[in-house]
Structure formats: C-alpha cells, structure tokens
Amino acid sequence: MPARAERDAGAPDSGFAFERHAPRPARARRTGSWPERLISGLAPSRERLRSFRVLGAARLVMGSILLGWFVLNMLGAGAGRAGIAVAGLYVLLVLGQWLLSLRTQRGFAWQVLSAVLCDLVAFTLMQWLAGPTEHELVLSYTLPVLAAGVWGTLRFSLATAAAVTLLLLAQASAGLGGASVGGELQFVASGFVGAAYFAMGTLAWQLSQRLVRQEQRARSSEIRASRQLAINRHVLLEHPDGVLVLDSRLRVEAANPAAANLLGMPGAPDELSPGAWDLRDPALAVLGDAVRAHAEGARSGSPMQFESIDGVRLQARVQPLRHLPGGPAYVVFVQDMREIGNQIQQDKLAALGRLVAALAHEIRNPLGAIAHANELASEHGLSEAQRTRMSELISQNVDRLNRIVEDVLDLGRAGARAPMQLQPLRLLRELVAEYEIDAPGRIELEAEDERATLSFDPQQLRRVIVNLLGNAQRFASHQPGAIRISLRGTGHVRELAVANDGPVVAPSLRTQIFEPFFTTDSRGTGLGLYICQELCSRYGARLFYRVVQRGQSHGEFVIGVIAPPDALRDEA
User: Fold this and answer.
1) Closest CA relative to residue 464, chosen from 539, 512, 516, 529
2) Which of 13, 59, 129, 559 lies 20 to 30 A from 224 at CA?
3) In whole angstroms, what is the distance from residue 369 CA to residue 435 CA?
C-alpha cells in the first residue's frame, strides 16, 4: 500500500487533510500551524457537520437575496453592475462550498476558514459598492461572526468580530471624510455595532463549547451503552440456561438460543423482533400463566415447573423489574429438570463418596482397637483385671461403632417427616429447664416475638437444638448467661442462634466443622453438626457459624430461616 494511503487509513482526519506533504515532526504538531490556532483541527461530529451544512444553505439564501437586491436597486449604475458581478460570484462560491460540505468532511477546518474569509471579503465589497447609506447590508456580517464563534476558537471568533468592526469603522470614516450628513453619528453607530458583534461572537463560542462538551458526554455515554449491550448480549447468548425478557404484556423482548431450544420455539434470537413470541399463545400458555401468577404475587419468589410443547419438564424462575422506563418487565430463567436432576444426582454421589470414605475411616479405628484387644485377651498369663480391661475396650469401641451406625441411619430417615408451623419458644423453654437442673442460670433465653412461628418438624428441631446446646456446654464457662439462645424475627422466625462465651472457632477450622466425621472431641463421632446442617437444609433453613463482636468476641451457631415473601411484607 502506498505511504499516503497508509497514513490516510491509519490516522484520524486532522481537519486540514488536503496537504500532500509528509507529516510534520512531533514538536511542530504540538505547536500547531496558524490555521490550527484559529479553528479546531478535530474531525467534526455528525451534529456539527450537519449544522455547518445548514449554515451553507443559509449563506446561499443570503447571497441570492443580495444578488436580487442589486438587480432591483442598482441595475443601471456602474457600481450596480459590479455589485451584481460580486454577488453572482459569491453565490457560485457558496454553492461550491456547500456541495463540497455535502460530499465530504475531509478538510473541515479549511472549509470553515474559507467560508468565513469569503463572507468577509464578499460582504465588504458589496457594502462598498452599495454605498455607505445602505445600512441594512451591515447585518450580513452576522453569518461570518457566527461561523467563527461556532466552529472556531475564541481567538478566531474575536479576530473575526474585530475585522468586522474595523471594516465598519473604515466605511464610517470614509463617510466622515466625505463630509456626509450624519457622518459622526454613523461612526459611533459602527462602534456600537462592532461591540455587538464582539458580544455575539463570544456568546456563540461559549454556546458551541457547551454543545461540544455535551456531545462528548453523549458520545461517551453511547460508547458505554454500546459496550454494555455487547457484554449483555454475549452473556445472554452464552448462558447455559434459557433466559427470556418479557414486557408487561408478556411479549418476549429478548431470548437466548437455550430458551428457544428448551421451549421448542422456532427462530433464533437474532431473528426475533419485539413481540415475536407471545406467552399468551397456546404453546407457552403454561409459562404465561405462571408468570401472571408471579406478577399477582400468588407464587412470588418460588420456582415453577411446567412442560414444554415437546413434553420436556422445565423449571422457571421469574424476577420482576418494576422500575424501568417504558413500564415493568420480567426476566425468566428456564432450566431443564433433567439437567437439574443430573446435577443433584452427581452432587449426591459425590457427597455419598465423601461420606463412605469418612465412614470407612471412622469404622477402621474402633475395629482395629477391637481386634487388638481381642488378640491381647487371648494370650495366656493375663490377670483378671487385664482381661476385664480388654473387655471394656471392646465394649467401648462396639458402642462407638453403634453410635456411628445410629447417626448414619438417623440421617437417612431424617427426610421422611413433614414440616409444621410451630412456635419454637415453648420447645426452647422446655430444653432450658432440662439443662438448668445441674447449672441454674447458665442458659439465657431471649425472643423478639414470643409467638413467632417456624416451619419445622418438632422432633427434628429438638434434635438440632439439643446438639447445638451440647456443643455449647462443652466450651462455655459456668458463669450465669454463659449460653444464650436468641429467637429473632417478629411474626416469623428469621434466626435461631445458640451462642456461648467460650473460645471462638479458629478461622482455619470454620469451613470444616460441618464436614462429616470432623471433630476435636475424642469421644465424638463428628456427625452431629453435619446431621444438623442436613436437617436444616431439608426444611428450607441454613445452619452456619459466625463470630459476633459485642463487647468480647464470641461465636454462635445460627439457624437462618428463609421466610416466605408474604411474611416479609407483614413484618415491613
């Protein structure tokens, strides 16, 4: 490719692109030539280019009017014929400049500069030819002053206004030298008109700068919006689940290929026009009913299940977008129940593998102890006390094996009971009374709402709290209020926390305390917290550990309950 073509393709338009010589050195470009100090060298925006073309049309109209004025008023005089020639030549020049601006924006700065100079020269000649008494032609200088203020720098705008003022004063001086009537008054009036042109040029420059800044902000916002749209489009297309965006009339505004495949609908998202899919159609009536039920609050927040037209079992989650320009909308995430089932099965198999590995490890230790004690008991010459000790070791390890088996069996049977709405405060008071037999006042019970309800099985909830209280008893002091049970939430329980004043769990162990067979107690099986967490998850709750900074730091195990949306609205 030639050198000049490469420069044209790779470098932006400087505004003075008609030169054919090589680019100036870097230092010269920083300083700039005299035209660059008068008119901005940046390539114009679409709005500025459009306004310059409008100015070109206005100049063409102005030239036609001046040509008609000379034809009507000064056709017979010699100055009139010269004026007609100047006006006609001006019209032709303006027409050529206007056509050039319509054709290209290259060399935009030169176009502005030539337009201003052409107007100054042409209007000055026509003013002299018309005579000093024709004051209405003075208004024609408005066009070059505005052009310099809108598209030039402040220096160029003031220079143009100064040039117009000097031309007006020169014409007034010529009239004054000729001893014409009112020459002094015309000289003063020319000064006032020149001052007005200075104000006009400055104001036009300030307004143009404000418009330039607004255009830059708008262009920057447009770039950010386009970038965000491109990112959203990429995320939408690559999302493995089906994603649909619905308007308030349940028409699909956007969808990804996964949604089209899951719902069995024809057409790719790129080919969809707004409203191409309508959830009121029979093929998507089930999903449409579910979304309407969600909008009415009947199934707010809960996933819905339905079958596609191909008989595939699907699950959808709806998220409303209420405060949007143009009305509310809904985002629907569609998942294949087969994929969800496969993922759950994989998770179950992985959890089962970890449980079996941990269970085998835990069983091997007591079995090894039993085998070793049995070998020792079979030796000759052991005393009765030694044989009794071997028998106790075997019995203790058998009991340990039995506890492990019972815990695993209880874990398997934990999901068979249906939950019920109960008031846990009554159960908590019963447990506190049982535990305070040996240490009165050690457990403190507090509740925000004594009648707050919780969806849980009573026996399973009792088992979870007993396990948490037993854990707290091992680490808490024997001071009054060393163990605190907190029931938080009004109307519906949000959190049920069991705290103690013992040492907090080390940060490195907090991620392991809920794993099966992890324990720091030699007498424990390490399944207590794991079973409690599994029980809570089956009833829509979450068991976790956190450190509270209230005076002295202490840890607490919290049963976090996800209350239904209507309960949250009642509390609000």
Assistant:
1) 529
2) 13
3) 34
**Widest Cα–Cα separation across the chain:** 153
With 50 as the cut, is the pLDDT of residue 344 above it?
yes
| pLDDT at 171 exceeding the cut of 50 | yes
Place of tokens 């000049």: 4
Is 39 in the same domain as 161? yes
Query: Per DSSP, which regions of 349-475 are E strands?
Result: 420-422, 443-447, 454-456
In a domain, 223, yes or no: no
Q: Looking at residue 93, what is its pLDDT?
A: 92
Residues 321 and 193 in one domain: no
CA geometry: angle at 94 spanning 58 and 89, to 5°? 125
Q: Indicate if 41 and 65 belong to the same structural domain.
A: yes
Is the domain of 390 the same as that of 471?
no
Tell how strand 454-456 and strand 304-307 pair up.
unpaired
DSSP class of residue 271? G
Residues ≥6 apart with Cβ < 8 Å to 444: 480, 481, 483, 484, 485
Q: Quote the DSSP letter at residue 323.
A: S
Amino acid at 326: G
Domain final residue, candidates 305, 340, 375: 340
Asked if residue 61 and residue 150 are part of one domain, the reply reads yes
Give the pLDDT score at 336.
Answer: 82
Q: Does any domain span residue 288?
A: yes
Which of 197-201, 257-261, 413-417 comes out lowest in average pLDDT?
A: 413-417
Residue with tokens 């010699």, as numbered in its chain: 78
**Does pLDDT of 438 surpass 90?**
no
Whether 269 and 334 map to the same domain: the answer is: yes
Quote the pLDDT of residue 403: 73
231 is a domain residue? no
Give the Å distances, CA to CA, from 306 to 26, 242, 282, 329, 478: 68, 14, 13, 21, 56
Q: Beta 420-422 vs 313-321: how paired, if at all?
A: unpaired
Q: How many CB atoms lie within 10 A of CB 570?
A: 12
Is residue 26's pLDDT more than 60? no
The parent domain of residue 176 ranges over 3-217
**pLDDT (tens digit per residue) in 290-332:** 777 766 665 555 677 777 766 778 888 887 887 777 777 888 8
In this structure, the answer to whether residues 406 and 442 fall within a common structural domain is no
Contact status, residue 459 vs residue 519, Cβ threshold 8 Å: no
Domain harbouring 493, CATH code: 3.30.565.10
Indicate whether 399 and 431 sit together in one domain: no
Report pLDDT for 490. 87
In terms of pLDDT, which residue wins out, 357 or 140? Answer: 140
How far apart are alpha carbons 256 and 37 in whole angstroms?
53
In contact, 519 and 525? CB cutoff 8 Å: yes
